Amino acid sequence: MAFNHLPAGVHDALVPLSVTPVTHSMPMAKNHRPDGPLTDSVSGVPRLAPGTVLDRLASGPSRASRITHTEHLPPRAGRHAVWPDRIRAEVIAAVRDAGIEHPWAHQAEAAEHALDGESVVVATGTASGKSLSYLVPVLSTLLDGAEAPNGRGATALYLAPTKALAADQRRSVKELSQPLGNAIRPAVYDGDTPFEEREWVRQYANYVLTNPDMLHRGILPSHPRWSSFLKSLKYVVIDECHTYRGVFGSHVAQVLRRLRRLCARYGASPVFLLASATAAEPSVAARRLTGLPVVEVADDASPRGELVFALWEPPLTDLEGEKGAPVRRSATAETADLLTDLTVQGVRSVAFVRSRRGAELIAVIAQERLAEVDRSLARRVAAYRGGYLPEERRALEQALHSGELLGLSATTALELGIDVSGLDAVLIAGYPGTRASLWQQAGRAGRAGQGALAVLVARDDPLDTFLVHHPEALFRQPVESTVLDPDNPYVLAPHLCAAAAELPLTEADLALFGPAAAGLLPQLEAAKLLRRRATAWHWTRRERAADLTDIRGEGGPPVQIVETGTGRLLGTVDAGSAHTTVHEGAVHLHQGRTYLVRSLDLDESVALVEQASPSYSTVARDTTAISVLETDTEIPWGDGRLCYGSVEVTNQVVSFLRRRVITGEVLGETKLDLPPRTLRTRAVWWTVTEDQLDEARINPEILGGALHAAEHASIGLLPLFATCDRWDIGGVSIPLHPDTLLPTVFVYDGHPGGAGFAERAFHTARTWLSATLEAIASCECEAGCPSCIQSPKCGNGNDPLHKRGAIRLLTALLRAAPEDRAQEEPPGSPRGSH
């Protein structure tokens, strides 16, 4: 029997406790250190210092014991410089009109590189003014171009990972460039842009703001209509470039190579200006992404207010979970209470949540509890997530800007550089997967220079539990390197087809797309996708080549969620998670309302729902089989082996559980008839021998549970060592695998062709599995719980699991493990990077 753990959404079972919202009448702590006279820019109410806010949050019954660590980051003074003398005086005057007399040193340095024609990445902290670093040279160049006697003049392209960020940046550009008149013409061009506006953007806009998806599907395939724009392209701005990692980052890397190829066709060679949150080796990651040499500016010269960062562990409850395991209060319920308390205090806050469902639940709970205190307060909290319609997103963003909203429960759709200056506190419901993302989210508060509070609320999860008791892993370690692999054949092949459809592909083009390109062309010819004529390869099909791939790796068109009675489109869900989230009978939340899915039509990509009020949530269950296609590398671990290579994973959702919302109690299971899905990807796996099992005192009765428990915990800890989220990876454990003929644990990338995560795991296996062992062994539970070996995503309902067997198994395995091989091939340099 195989025990599997697949990438999927997290479904929190809420376990609310009786919590009284904190009010302003609560006494201040004796050790309070005031931050100075701060006033909310919207309400005019004096701001509370972050230490005071935390003291109040922790002053309720049993609250103080939930804080496992508090980190105080002191304020930092800024360092000014002067703008390069080549910047137009009108632009400098416009910046001064916006209240910025002098740039920070890193802003001036980045602008100097841009004007010198050097691609540059600015990798400084949140709210450090990265936008101005690229906007000032871009606006100055556009202004020069506007005075050109002939032609269109200079143009610039801005790429953001989300539509919301592009829309926010357009507002900023319009405000900054207003004194410059009509010389600067910014416009958003994405899926939300009305068709009647698109022609104007193509013909007249000189600063086009879009996203990689629209560049891939809309602009590049239609490049003849964009020829005037591309011919004059001087700068390509890539904002929040640290988000381009894994499969998505690999796709974007190839989209940028296609853009560079077409620009060269029209005689342009744009300079790339990249902005990133603090990251390890940002110039290396930027070079991988663009394929060009990139200068690094990483010395942050901006000032920073005090940041108080608390680690918060929800308490254990009296309830029992699966197999009688102790149940800790969910991060969702705990964060909802904290958001309620902050709203009552008048503290402007955002709660970041891992899942769309979690974001909706937190908003609903907070609204209900605020209504008990003051009905008007309930209207000042809302949810924000992907899948909302454009007008809903814009209204929420405006309400947050204006201060109409005091609290927002958001997915990472709001994590990126949307200007939410004025926030006092950030709640993070569960570790977001990487230290870079953690600091990005924490940095959303205090953006106006005031002190701020950040609270990481731990989920009942091995990684979160490890981190709140090992604060040094968060506060004493550098942020991660960005992992992406443009040579992944599943990524590269469709982009070669798209490039050939845009412009016949020649031998001279292949170097641009990397060393793997030449080897893929015969395969594409054999598949009758490309045909060689004379010296070039041509696209042979009638359909659009750009439709061969979804660059976000979501496996097909999004599934539309439609209300049956009205025909109203509620939103969308990506194709990859449709089987687990909108199957027939699933409970779906949208803007605080609950719906039941009546049918899922996979052919038409539509889920029909109707409003309902069930007392339960739903969790999908599935089965998985895995086979080894090719072993690239293996090293001995004593008698066992550590391996890395290609695998094929077959997964099928077979049923779903109904769980009572309050207690998590299982009410029943319903069978489903959904087709299996096959994934070819990359994996790391390890085997153990009979002698090692004898050494660990593991008999056949507990072997399956020991392997299964070790698999769960290792997946839970891997995001600490690879830049992945838990749902980016999956796993399978089996007592006797037919390919290895030994007990084997697999951990694989949840994306076709792999994303680099399993490779990182292979190169850091000793450190990774040692941390896994420590996390299991240090947990206080008796037989296993969600904090160590149980998984909310387990397709087998966390059965069987054997905690002590997993400890003995990992101990025996690690006893013979060599030192990590990271020094031989750095994890930041995946195969084929260039």
TrEMBL record:
<dbReference type="InterPro" id="IPR018973">
    <property type="entry name" value="MZB"/>
</dbReference>
<dbReference type="Pfam" id="PF00270">
    <property type="entry name" value="DEAD"/>
</dbReference>
<dbReference type="InterPro" id="IPR001650">
    <property type="entry name" value="Helicase_C-like"/>
</dbReference>
<dbReference type="GO" id="GO:0004386">
    <property type="term" value="F:helicase activity"/>
</dbReference>
<dbReference type="InterPro" id="IPR011545">
    <property type="entry name" value="DEAD/DEAH_box_helicase_dom"/>
</dbReference>
<dbReference type="InterPro" id="IPR014001">
    <property type="entry name" value="Helicase_ATP-bd"/>
</dbReference>
<dbReference type="Pfam" id="PF09369">
    <property type="entry name" value="MZB"/>
</dbReference>
<keyword id="KW-0347">Helicase</keyword>
<keyword id="KW-0378">Hydrolase</keyword>
<dbReference type="InterPro" id="IPR055227">
    <property type="entry name" value="HRQ1_WHD"/>
</dbReference>
<protein>
    <submittedName>
        <fullName>DEAD/DEAH box helicase</fullName>
    </submittedName>
</protein>
<dbReference type="Pfam" id="PF22982">
    <property type="entry name" value="WHD_HRQ1"/>
</dbReference>
<dbReference type="InterPro" id="IPR022307">
    <property type="entry name" value="Helicase_put_actinobac"/>
</dbReference>
<feature type="domain" description="Helicase C-terminal">
    <location>
        <begin position="338"/>
        <end position="490"/>
    </location>
</feature>
<dbReference type="Pfam" id="PF00271">
    <property type="entry name" value="Helicase_C"/>
</dbReference>
<keyword id="KW-0067">ATP-binding</keyword>
<dbReference type="InterPro" id="IPR027417">
    <property type="entry name" value="P-loop_NTPase"/>
</dbReference>
<feature type="domain" description="Helicase ATP-binding">
    <location>
        <begin position="111"/>
        <end position="297"/>
    </location>
</feature>
<keyword id="KW-0547">Nucleotide-binding</keyword>
